[in-house]
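Dear Dr. L.,

I hope this message finds you well. Following up on our conversation about the binding site, I have prepared a predicted three-dimensional model of the protein together with fe (iii) ion. For your records, I am including the exact sequence and ligand specification that went into the calculation, followed by the structure tokens. Please feel free to forward this to your student if that is useful.
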Amino acid sequence: MIDLHLHTTASDGRSSPESLVREALEAGISTLAVTDHDTTAALDSTAAAAEAAGLAFVRGIEITAVHQGRDVHILGYFLDAADAALEGFLTRQREDRRRRVREMGTRLARLGAPIDIDGLLARATSAPERAIGRPMVASALVDAGHAGDIAEAFDRFLAEGRPAFVERAGATPADVIGLVARAGGVASLAHPAKLGLDALIGPLASAGLPAIEIFHPDHDDADRARYSEIARRHDLVVTGGSDYHGPGSGRTSGLGRVSLPAHEFERLVERARRPDRSHA
Ligand code: AMP
Ligand code: ZN
Ligand code: FE
Ligand code: FE
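The resulting structure of the complex is given below.
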């Protein structure tokens, strides 16, 4: 099985790189990619653990871009994590995540649901290579007794349009696609059905988007069929994975629930070998 969408404790996953590799081995996965939000901090340790376990490892990331006030997740594969422009960009993204979490804390206090925001931010600041985000705020809400579980914390407070949701300011999807390409990576539009902005795909393909995520636990058969057709029309490579966030993360997807067919993975590898001139 090939799973190209996994999170670790470097962002909002619950599994350390070492546990993730153990879990992947048990789930029968042979090739895995770590795609943490806005950080590459777990790539070296996961690569080492994967190699020791005899699993193939792909360096990845999931970058949050913004289109008209809405989050657009762009996956990147086979990129050079040491690329200076990428590194600088990700450092700013993580700073903005901390700013945003502080603002969520202020709003939650005003809403009568205070959490230990200083403790949360102190931990985040002491490990700036890690990306903080709403799942940590959701956990704090559960710990403080303001929500029964993570899902309820999102539904009541943190989801888009809910009272503690803080809009992001950030790079556009086209900017991020260019950034990934210049770092030698292949960008893929993450879980487009969750996004619900199909009209964006054509323009992004024209702007150099090379791939799209079709295999994802939130995609049903109809979604897969629709995005396969869109991928064919725009000549996009297909990616996929479980978007696993570890045990107890409040999400339903388990490791090995979704697998990318081997021939699609081969196309992705081919695409990564072919340097993209449009962003050079
Ligand atoms: P952020 O990076 O701060 O925008 O937080 C986004 C992350 O929150 C996603 O990648 C998911 O891991 C998680 N998430 C979003 N919605 C939910 C939800 N309804 N229940 C549990 N986790 C969620
Ligand atoms: Zn996440
Ligand atoms: Fe995502
Ligand atoms: Fe993800």
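In brief: The CA atoms of residues 65 and 71 lie 6 Å apart.

With kind regards,
A. P.
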